[in-house]
Amino acid sequence: MDAWRHTFLFQNSENKHSWFFCFDKQTTPFWFIDWWLYYGPPEDILPPSIYDALITFHKNTENIEHCPIILHFFIHCKLSWIMYWGYAIDESEDTLLTLQRAFWTKWWNNYDLSKCTSQTIIESL
C-alpha cells in the first residue's frame, strides 16, 4: 500500500511535479483513501459556491465508513484539482539543513462551477 501512497512523487523528464486529478467513477480503491488522507485537497481550496455545495452534501448524505466526506463529495461531483510538489530546504536552527518535499494543492480554475451547486447536489441525491 505504501507504493501507491508514493505513486505521484515521480519526477518526469521535464522536472515537473504537478498532477491533475479528476474522478470519472463512483468508487475508489482502498489505497486511494489512504493516499487522500495524506495528499488530498483541503477544504480551503474550494471556491465559496463549491464549499456551500459541500455543506449541503454533508447535511444530506450518510457518512461512509473510512471515507472522508470531502472525498465522497469530490467523487460524487467529479471535482478536479491540481496537486504539485517541489523541493524545500529546512533550515531549522537546531538541525542540519535537510532537503524535503513541499506539497501544495489548488483548485482547477477551469471547472464549470454551475455543475456543483447546493441545488444540483439536492437534485443528484
Question: How would you sum up this structure in a few lines?
Answer:
The chain has helices at about 1-5, 30-40, 50-60, 70-75, 120-125, and strands spanning about 20, 80-90, 100-105. It has about 120 residues and is α+β, with helices and mostly antiparallel strands.
How would you describe the overall organization of this protein?
The chain has helices at residues 2-5, 30-39, 48-60, 69-77, 118-124, and strands spanning 18-22, 80-90, 98-107. It is α+β, with helices and mostly antiparallel strands and 125 residues long. It has one domain (19-124). Strands 1-2-3 form a three-stranded antiparallel sheet, with no helix packed on it. β2 and β3 (98-107) form a beta hairpin. It is elongated, with a radius of gyration of 17 Å. The model has no long low-confidence stretch (mean pLDDT 83).
Count of domain modules = 1
Main sheet: strand order: 1-2-3
Number of DSSP-assigned strands: 3
Q: Give me the Rg, rounded.
A: 17 Å
Low-confidence stretches: none
Beta content: 15-25%
Q: Helical residue percent? A: 25-40%
Task: Give the helix tally.
Answer: 5
Please provide the ordered H/E string of secondary-structure elements: HEHHHEEH
- Return the average pLDDT rounded to an integer: 83
Shape: elongated
Give the CA-CA distance, first to last residue. 32 Å
User: Strand count, sense and closure of the main sheet?
Assistant: 3 strands, antiparallel
- What structural class do helix, strand and pairing data support? alpha+beta
